[in-house]
Give the backbone structure.
Amino acid sequence: MSASQSAVRSRAEAVQVSRTFDWMILFTVFTAVLGGYHIHYMLTGGDWDFWTDWKDRRLWVTVAPIVSITFPAAVQACLWYRYRLPFGAVVSVLALMLGEWINRYLNFWGWTYFPVNFCFPSNLIPGAIVLDVVLMLSSSLTATAVIGGLAYGLLFYPGNWPIIAPLHVPVEYNGMMMTLADLQGYHYVRTGTPEYIRMVEKGTLRTFGKDVAPVSAFFSGFVSIIIYFLWHFFGRWFSKTDFVDSSNV
Amino acid sequence: MAATTESVKADAAEAPLLNKRNLIAGFMLYLVFYSFIRWYEGVYGWSAGLDSFAPEFETYWMNMLYIEMVIEVLLFSSINGWLWKTRDRKVMSITPREELRRHFTHWTWLVMYGWAIYWGASYFTEQDGTWHQTIVRDTDFTPSHIIEFYLSYPIYIITGTGAFMYAKTRLPTYQEGLHLMYLVSVVGPFMILPNVGLNEWGHTFWFMEELFVAPLHYGFVFFGWAALAIMGVVNTEVMTITKLLKKDLA
């Protein structure tokens, strides 16, 4: 083969070209996934993620894992099954959390002055690590969905516990019993403040054995399993390299 | 020896495979521009953006809306028109090295597309949430919407269609037909802009306290999923670049 048929001049140049493409691809995938995942998450679970007075023991614990396991499952479907890269879930969650932290600091605090300890994002990293580790060790879609998906739901509350616990201590305010997080909400009035809008734990679930968070986490894990399966196949579809005939479009 | 010297001279004169200056300039352009926009919002959102009936709202916000819309239409037409007008009519007969060079340029477009998607779908969209939680809207054209819907979304649409048009007019890989996932990754996020129609229609009919997870917003969610189609583009690109480099990396 003549030199003119080669795209590069040497093996060293080929390696350099390959590495450069790796970085450009990584940046593009990271930012595109960040954008898509963030708009999905903020509009399906955002209110629970934005404010500490929405971070309750029932709906936050239930909703956040179910809606956030989506993109990790889809990105894993591409990165693991095509390239054997075992970090699809972690890279998705890191992207989302970077976008969220930048926003909470520069905009929630920097533009509208909500303190960061009132509007910090939920921590999704422990569940994402487990998803990736289970996939890497098992190389099985089913095991990752069932074990990883369940663990993703179950680990969410413990993963956020150290952060949220100080705000869940009870306080008495004007003769009413509430949490510190509720009190933050009373002091930072928002358009979504009216109590009929806030979707948080009501009293009834406590009659079912009084422990709200474990029941919610278990239910969340169960639904996360189903969502993982579904989004794995979405991920495979989005990874296709097919062309369609221009005349049919 | 003479031949070698000639070859070295030719290499030195040849355009680099990756034009790093363009890549860095593009990245910095969006960063500096959006930093300025964020500063503008910070100052004039509070001082002139609270009451849409006030004359200063017209001055600082509606005029900005009119100007940006005109510029965006001009940019979209001129960039895509130029890419089409200067298309390579003998694209299947370029050398492998030229093809590699074009893939680098294509990836500069894609890096910019990802960067623009970040600003539009992540930065300015969640920012809109905190603005609505703070200010009760009295118009569809709130300051955050003038930036989010009518500035940052059109910018990523222009960047995405530019990338697609570049690939279609200059790369042999994309001459087989229309790459389905490339279409999804450009058309899907584009559809978020028309979906603004549904959003404003709903918010105009119902005074909705800002529940961000309201079903009215699910159109944005659906089209946001299309960003995942970038994986299909990556897979195609990896296969092509691997083919171009394979024998040299083996």
Summary: The mean pLDDT of chain A is 92.
